[in-house]
Amino acid sequence: MVTVGVQNGFARVVAVVAAIGLLVLGIWAYAAPQSFFHNVATFPPYNRHLIHDIGAFLTGLGAVLVFGLLTADALFAALAGVAVGLLLHGGAHIEDRALGGRPSDPYVLSILGAIVAVAAGARAIAVRRAPRA
């Protein structure tokens, strides 16, 4: 029978490795979409905004794992990671606004990302102020 400590250690190792991989791929796709397309996502035709979206989502997933590793509060980790993804997604719509989409997309995504980030901050404060058992 596997002990809880071994299970927890395995889960943490997997989370660290996955977080690193997701963050590396996500940041690469977001920062250098042409390079990411030619080296990883070779599914023509090239679409800069789609690669930016992939970068935003992968980075957000990696951030969820990082925040999950740094805190025991699942709601904070989820909110903080989602905020990262949404804010990057909003940024992609700002950068790629000439490529299409709705004119409201950059604003809606950025405002939603900011609201989720504020909620993550509020959750962090609430957890910190909660009485210890």
Describe the 3D structure.
With 133 residues, the protein is an all-alpha fold. The chain has one domain (4-129). It is 79% helix and 0% strand. It contains 5 helices and no strands. α1 (4-31) runs antiparallel to α3 (48-70) and α3 (48-70) packs antiparallel against α4. The longest helix is centred in the first third of the chain and has 28 residues, at 4-31. The radius of gyration is 17 Å and the shape is flat. The two termini are 31 Å apart.
How are the elements arranged and paired?
Layout: H1 4-31, H2 33-39, H3 48-70, H4 74-95, H5 105-129
Order of helices and strands: HHHHH
| Unreliable residue runs | none
- Care to count the β-strands? 0
Rg: 17 Å
Structural class: mainly alpha
Characterize the main sheet: none
Q: What proportion strand?
A: under 5%
Mean pLDDT: 91
Query: Can you count the helices?
Result: 5
Number of domains: 1
Note the gap between the termini: 31 Å
**Outline, from the CA principal axes?**
flat
Helicity, as a percent range: over 70%
Salient structural properties:
mainly alpha; 5 helices
What is this entry, summarized?
It contains five helices and no strands.
